[in-house]
Fold:
Amino acid sequence: PMGGWIHEAPIVGEELRQSPRSTMWSRGERRLTLDRGWQPGWAATRQGPTRLIEHAVEHRDDGVLVRQRLELPIGGELRQETYLPAHAGWIEINSHWTMGLETNPEATYIAFPFEAPEAVARLDLGGQAMRVDTDQLPRACRDYFTAQNWVDFSNREFGVTVACPDTPMVQLGDFTFGANLDTVELRRAMLLGWVTNNYWETNFRAHQPGMVSARYRLLPHAGPFDEAAAHRFGLDAAAPPLVHHLLEPAVASPVLATTGSLLRLPEPPVLTLHLWPREGAVCVRLLNASDDAVTSTVGSGVLRIVRAARCDSLGSVIEELKTGRDAEVTIALEPRMLATLRLELQPT
Structure:
Protein backbone atom coordinates (compact mmCIF):
# COMPACT_ATOMS: atom_id res chain seq x y z
CA PRO A 1 0.00 0.00 0.00
CA MET A 2 0.97 3.65 -0.31
CA GLY A 3 3.35 4.40 2.56
CA GLY A 4 3.42 0.70 3.42
CA TRP A 5 6.01 -0.54 5.93
CA ILE A 6 8.07 -3.56 4.77
CA HIS A 7 10.52 -5.77 6.63
CA GLU A 8 13.04 -7.70 4.50
CA ALA A 9 15.30 -10.57 5.58
CA PRO A 10 17.49 -12.72 3.28
CA ILE A 11 16.78 -16.45 3.26
CA VAL A 12 20.06 -17.96 4.41
CA GLY A 13 20.95 -21.57 3.71
CA GLU A 14 22.44 -23.82 6.38
CA GLU A 15 25.88 -23.64 4.77
CA LEU A 16 25.99 -19.85 5.28
CA ARG A 17 24.70 -19.65 8.85
CA GLN A 18 28.09 -18.51 10.11
CA SER A 19 28.35 -15.82 7.43
CA PRO A 20 24.80 -14.88 6.43
CA ARG A 21 25.78 -11.78 4.47
CA SER A 22 27.60 -14.02 2.00
CA THR A 23 24.13 -14.65 0.58
CA MET A 24 24.35 -11.16 -0.97
CA TRP A 25 28.08 -10.58 -1.37
CA SER A 26 31.29 -12.57 -1.19
CA ARG A 27 34.90 -11.53 -1.61
CA GLY A 28 36.41 -12.54 -4.94
CA GLU A 29 39.57 -12.13 -6.96
CA ARG A 30 39.52 -8.51 -8.18
CA ARG A 31 43.05 -7.85 -9.37
CA LEU A 32 42.49 -9.12 -12.91
CA THR A 33 38.69 -8.87 -13.28
CA LEU A 34 35.84 -6.41 -12.82
CA ASP A 35 33.94 -8.76 -10.50
CA ARG A 36 32.46 -6.73 -7.63
CA GLY A 37 31.41 -9.73 -5.56
CA TRP A 38 27.64 -9.24 -5.55
CA GLN A 39 25.39 -12.31 -5.59
CA PRO A 40 22.32 -11.24 -7.63
CA GLY A 41 19.04 -13.05 -7.23
CA TRP A 42 19.27 -13.70 -3.48
CA ALA A 43 15.95 -14.71 -1.96
CA ALA A 44 14.26 -12.87 0.87
CA THR A 45 11.13 -12.88 3.00
CA ARG A 46 9.22 -9.60 3.01
CA GLN A 47 6.45 -8.82 5.47
CA GLY A 48 4.19 -5.93 6.31
CA PRO A 49 2.35 -5.16 9.55
CA THR A 50 0.42 -8.13 10.93
CA ARG A 51 -2.54 -6.37 12.55
CA LEU A 52 -4.27 -3.01 12.73
CA ILE A 53 -4.48 -1.92 16.36
CA GLU A 54 -5.99 1.55 16.03
CA HIS A 55 -7.27 3.81 13.25
CA ALA A 56 -8.41 7.40 13.81
CA VAL A 57 -9.25 10.31 11.50
CA GLU A 58 -9.04 13.87 12.79
CA HIS A 59 -10.61 16.72 10.81
CA ARG A 60 -8.90 20.01 11.68
CA ASP A 61 -8.90 23.56 10.36
CA ASP A 62 -5.48 23.03 8.79
CA GLY A 63 -6.36 19.69 7.15
CA VAL A 64 -7.01 16.01 7.83
CA LEU A 65 -4.76 13.81 9.97
CA VAL A 66 -5.04 10.00 9.86
CA ARG A 67 -3.38 8.13 12.72
CA GLN A 68 -2.71 4.39 12.75
CA ARG A 69 -1.08 1.93 15.11
CA LEU A 70 -0.08 -1.40 13.55
CA GLU A 71 1.49 -4.51 15.03
CA LEU A 72 4.84 -5.46 13.47
CA PRO A 73 6.25 -8.94 12.80
CA ILE A 74 9.57 -7.91 14.39
CA GLY A 75 7.83 -6.92 17.61
CA GLY A 76 6.48 -3.59 18.74
CA GLU A 77 4.25 -1.18 16.87
CA LEU A 78 4.35 1.05 13.83
CA ARG A 79 2.86 4.46 14.53
CA GLN A 80 2.02 6.21 11.31
CA GLU A 81 0.46 9.59 10.60
CA THR A 82 -0.80 10.68 7.18
CA TYR A 83 -1.43 14.42 6.89
CA LEU A 84 -3.44 16.05 4.10
CA PRO A 85 -3.13 19.83 4.53
CA ALA A 86 -5.98 22.14 3.59
CA HIS A 87 -3.61 24.75 2.15
CA ALA A 88 -1.49 22.61 -0.22
CA GLY A 89 -1.66 19.73 -2.66
CA TRP A 90 0.92 17.46 -1.01
CA ILE A 91 0.53 14.53 1.39
CA GLU A 92 2.98 13.85 4.22
CA ILE A 93 3.50 10.41 5.79
CA ASN A 94 5.36 10.10 9.10
CA SER A 95 6.34 6.63 10.37
CA HIS A 96 7.83 5.66 13.73
CA TRP A 97 8.87 2.24 15.02
CA THR A 98 11.53 0.61 17.20
CA MET A 99 14.35 -1.61 15.96
CA GLY A 100 15.55 -4.39 18.25
CA LEU A 101 18.70 -6.44 18.81
CA GLU A 102 18.60 -8.65 15.70
CA THR A 103 22.10 -9.24 14.28
CA ASN A 104 21.10 -11.29 11.24
CA PRO A 105 20.74 -9.28 8.00
CA GLU A 106 17.50 -7.28 7.82
CA ALA A 107 16.18 -4.10 6.26
CA THR A 108 13.06 -1.94 6.54
CA TYR A 109 11.39 0.16 3.86
CA ILE A 110 8.51 2.56 3.35
CA ALA A 111 7.00 1.84 -0.08
CA PHE A 112 5.39 4.26 -2.51
CA PRO A 113 3.96 2.58 -5.63
CA PHE A 114 2.77 5.06 -8.27
CA GLU A 115 0.84 4.71 -11.50
CA ALA A 116 2.99 6.70 -13.94
CA PRO A 117 3.49 4.84 -17.25
CA GLU A 118 6.82 5.36 -19.01
CA ALA A 119 8.03 7.61 -16.22
CA VAL A 120 11.61 8.87 -16.07
CA ALA A 121 13.16 8.74 -12.60
CA ARG A 122 15.20 11.72 -11.45
CA LEU A 123 16.74 12.50 -8.09
CA ASP A 124 18.39 15.45 -6.39
CA LEU A 125 22.13 14.77 -6.43
CA GLY A 126 23.79 17.70 -4.69
CA GLY A 127 21.43 20.20 -6.32
CA GLN A 128 21.48 18.54 -9.74
CA ALA A 129 18.49 16.71 -11.23
CA MET A 130 20.14 13.44 -12.17
CA ARG A 131 18.26 11.19 -14.57
CA VAL A 132 18.66 7.67 -13.27
CA ASP A 133 20.81 5.56 -15.63
CA THR A 134 20.94 8.20 -18.41
CA ASP A 135 23.17 10.60 -16.44
CA GLN A 136 25.27 7.93 -14.71
CA LEU A 137 28.75 6.79 -15.62
CA PRO A 138 29.32 3.16 -16.66
CA ARG A 139 29.64 0.84 -13.64
CA ALA A 140 28.30 3.47 -11.26
CA CYS A 141 26.00 2.02 -8.60
CA ARG A 142 22.47 1.45 -9.88
CA ASP A 143 21.23 -0.92 -7.18
CA TYR A 144 20.35 1.92 -4.81
CA PHE A 145 20.66 5.70 -4.70
CA THR A 146 21.09 8.55 -2.23
CA ALA A 147 18.99 11.68 -2.76
CA GLN A 148 19.70 15.13 -1.33
CA ASN A 149 16.09 16.31 -0.97
CA TRP A 150 13.77 14.66 -3.49
CA VAL A 151 13.02 11.93 -6.05
CA ASP A 152 10.68 12.44 -9.03
CA PHE A 153 8.85 10.14 -11.45
CA SER A 154 7.46 12.00 -14.47
CA ASN A 155 6.27 11.31 -17.99
CA ARG A 156 5.24 13.95 -20.51
CA GLU A 157 1.79 14.42 -19.01
CA PHE A 158 2.16 14.19 -15.23
CA GLY A 159 4.32 12.98 -12.39
CA VAL A 160 4.95 12.94 -8.66
CA THR A 161 7.77 14.41 -6.58
CA VAL A 162 8.69 12.78 -3.26
CA ALA A 163 10.64 14.77 -0.70
CA CYS A 164 12.77 12.62 1.61
CA PRO A 165 14.37 15.05 4.08
CA ASP A 166 15.27 12.48 6.78
CA THR A 167 16.10 9.26 4.91
CA PRO A 168 18.15 9.78 1.74
CA MET A 169 18.62 6.14 0.66
CA VAL A 170 16.17 4.78 -1.92
CA GLN A 171 15.66 1.88 -4.30
CA LEU A 172 13.67 2.46 -7.48
CA GLY A 173 11.26 0.20 -9.31
CA ASP A 174 11.89 -2.93 -7.27
CA PHE A 175 13.97 -4.45 -4.45
CA THR A 176 17.39 -4.22 -6.10
CA PHE A 177 20.11 -4.23 -3.43
CA GLY A 178 22.91 -6.55 -4.54
CA ALA A 179 21.44 -6.98 -8.03
CA ASN A 180 24.67 -5.63 -9.60
CA LEU A 181 22.70 -3.75 -12.25
CA ASP A 182 24.50 -2.40 -15.32
CA THR A 183 21.42 -0.49 -16.51
CA VAL A 184 18.12 0.56 -14.96
CA GLU A 185 14.84 -0.20 -16.72
CA LEU A 186 12.02 0.78 -14.38
CA ARG A 187 9.38 -1.94 -14.30
CA ARG A 188 7.14 0.43 -12.38
CA ALA A 189 7.27 3.90 -10.86
CA MET A 190 7.85 2.68 -7.32
CA LEU A 191 9.96 4.38 -4.69
CA LEU A 192 11.27 2.27 -1.83
CA GLY A 193 12.43 4.51 1.01
CA TRP A 194 15.29 2.43 2.46
CA VAL A 195 15.16 3.40 6.11
CA THR A 196 17.34 0.81 7.89
CA ASN A 197 19.62 -2.09 7.02
CA ASN A 198 22.60 -3.98 8.41
CA TYR A 199 23.63 -5.59 5.14
CA TRP A 200 27.23 -4.38 5.00
CA GLU A 201 29.99 -5.98 7.05
CA THR A 202 31.54 -2.88 8.61
CA ASN A 203 33.06 -1.77 11.88
CA PHE A 204 29.57 -0.94 13.22
CA ARG A 205 27.74 -3.44 15.39
CA ALA A 206 25.15 -5.48 13.50
CA HIS A 207 22.20 -4.21 15.52
CA GLN A 208 21.24 -0.57 15.97
CA PRO A 209 18.34 -0.64 18.44
CA GLY A 210 16.03 2.23 19.21
CA MET A 211 13.38 4.48 17.75
CA VAL A 212 13.36 5.02 13.98
CA SER A 213 11.55 7.88 12.26
CA ALA A 214 10.95 8.42 8.55
CA ARG A 215 9.14 11.32 6.89
CA TYR A 216 8.12 11.55 3.23
CA ARG A 217 6.14 14.27 1.45
CA LEU A 218 4.39 13.49 -1.85
CA LEU A 219 3.37 16.08 -4.45
CA PRO A 220 1.58 14.98 -7.64
CA HIS A 221 1.92 17.46 -10.50
CA ALA A 222 0.38 18.03 -13.90
CA GLY A 223 2.68 18.46 -16.87
CA PRO A 224 6.27 17.25 -17.35
CA PHE A 225 9.08 17.47 -14.83
CA ASP A 226 9.90 20.96 -13.54
CA GLU A 227 13.34 21.04 -11.92
CA ALA A 228 12.90 24.41 -10.18
CA ALA A 229 9.58 23.30 -8.67
CA ALA A 230 11.15 20.04 -7.46
CA HIS A 231 14.00 21.89 -5.74
CA ARG A 232 11.60 24.32 -4.07
CA PHE A 233 9.40 21.44 -2.86
CA GLY A 234 12.37 19.51 -1.51
CA LEU A 235 13.77 22.53 0.30
CA ASP A 236 10.38 23.39 1.82
CA ALA A 237 10.09 19.85 3.22
CA ALA A 238 13.67 19.88 4.51
CA ALA A 239 13.21 23.14 6.44
CA PRO A 240 9.70 23.27 7.90
CA PRO A 241 8.76 26.47 9.76
CA LEU A 242 9.75 26.66 13.43
CA VAL A 243 7.00 27.97 15.70
CA HIS A 244 6.72 28.72 19.40
CA HIS A 245 4.08 30.12 21.72
CA LEU A 246 3.43 33.84 22.17
CA LEU A 247 4.29 33.96 25.86
CA GLU A 248 8.03 34.51 25.48
CA PRO A 249 9.23 37.52 27.53
CA ALA A 250 10.15 40.51 25.39
CA VAL A 251 13.82 41.45 24.97
CA ALA A 252 14.50 44.94 26.35
CA SER A 253 16.97 46.04 23.65
CA PRO A 254 16.90 43.65 20.68
CA VAL A 255 19.92 43.75 18.40
CA LEU A 256 17.91 42.84 15.28
CA ALA A 257 14.47 43.83 14.04
CA THR A 258 11.58 41.75 15.38
CA THR A 259 10.31 40.91 11.88
CA GLY A 260 11.84 40.31 8.46
CA SER A 261 14.42 38.09 6.77
CA LEU A 262 18.14 38.42 7.47
CA LEU A 263 18.88 38.43 3.72
CA ARG A 264 16.84 38.13 0.52
CA LEU A 265 18.20 35.00 -1.09
CA PRO A 266 17.58 33.91 -4.70
CA GLU A 267 14.60 31.83 -5.80
CA PRO A 268 14.91 28.54 -7.73
CA PRO A 269 16.37 27.67 -10.16
CA VAL A 270 19.23 29.35 -8.23
CA LEU A 271 19.81 27.37 -5.04
CA THR A 272 21.55 28.52 -1.88
CA LEU A 273 23.71 25.50 -1.05
CA HIS A 274 25.67 26.81 1.92
CA LEU A 275 25.99 29.86 4.15
CA TRP A 276 28.81 30.19 6.67
CA PRO A 277 30.69 32.91 8.63
CA ARG A 278 34.21 33.89 7.63
CA GLU A 279 36.42 36.60 9.18
CA GLY A 280 33.76 39.16 10.00
CA ALA A 281 31.66 38.38 6.94
CA VAL A 282 29.26 35.75 5.62
CA CYS A 283 29.89 33.50 2.60
CA VAL A 284 26.98 32.36 0.44
CA ARG A 285 27.39 29.53 -2.09
CA LEU A 286 24.95 29.61 -5.01
CA LEU A 287 24.19 27.05 -7.73
CA ASN A 288 22.37 27.70 -10.99
CA ALA A 289 20.40 24.44 -11.10
CA SER A 290 19.23 24.93 -14.68
CA ASP A 291 20.44 24.63 -18.25
CA ASP A 292 19.99 28.35 -18.91
CA ALA A 293 22.19 31.33 -18.04
CA VAL A 294 20.56 33.45 -15.33
CA THR A 295 21.19 36.62 -13.35
CA SER A 296 20.81 36.22 -9.60
CA THR A 297 20.51 38.78 -6.81
CA VAL A 298 21.21 38.61 -3.08
CA GLY A 299 19.51 41.51 -1.34
CA SER A 300 19.68 43.15 2.06
CA GLY A 301 17.08 42.43 4.71
CA VAL A 302 17.39 42.82 8.45
CA LEU A 303 21.13 42.71 7.69
CA ARG A 304 22.40 45.26 5.17
CA ILE A 305 25.08 44.37 2.62
CA VAL A 306 27.85 46.98 2.89
CA ARG A 307 30.50 45.21 0.79
CA ALA A 308 30.50 42.19 -1.54
CA ALA A 309 33.05 40.08 -3.38
CA ARG A 310 33.24 36.92 -5.46
CA CYS A 311 35.30 34.22 -3.72
CA ASP A 312 36.78 30.83 -4.35
CA SER A 313 35.30 27.75 -2.68
CA LEU A 314 37.21 28.47 0.56
CA GLY A 315 36.03 32.07 0.85
CA SER A 316 39.18 33.84 -0.37
CA VAL A 317 38.36 36.99 -2.38
CA ILE A 318 38.79 36.82 -6.16
CA GLU A 319 37.19 40.12 -7.18
CA GLU A 320 35.20 42.91 -5.58
CA LEU A 321 31.56 43.33 -6.63
CA LYS A 322 29.48 46.49 -6.76
CA THR A 323 26.41 46.79 -4.57
CA GLY A 324 23.28 48.36 -6.01
CA ARG A 325 21.21 51.29 -4.83
CA ASP A 326 19.20 49.01 -2.52
CA ALA A 327 22.33 47.41 -1.05
CA GLU A 328 22.05 44.30 -3.19
CA VAL A 329 24.58 42.35 -5.22
CA THR A 330 23.88 40.82 -8.63
CA ILE A 331 25.86 38.04 -10.27
CA ALA A 332 25.62 36.29 -13.65
CA LEU A 333 25.57 32.49 -13.52
CA GLU A 334 26.17 30.22 -16.49
CA PRO A 335 24.22 26.93 -16.73
CA ARG A 336 24.99 24.61 -13.77
CA MET A 337 27.52 27.11 -12.45
CA LEU A 338 28.61 27.41 -8.81
CA ALA A 339 29.50 30.78 -7.32
CA THR A 340 30.52 31.90 -3.83
CA LEU A 341 29.91 35.40 -2.52
CA ARG A 342 31.53 37.06 0.50
CA LEU A 343 29.22 39.60 2.13
CA GLU A 344 30.07 42.08 4.82
CA LEU A 345 26.92 42.88 6.77
CA GLN A 346 25.61 45.20 9.43
CA PRO A 347 22.20 45.53 11.10
CA THR A 348 19.88 48.01 9.41
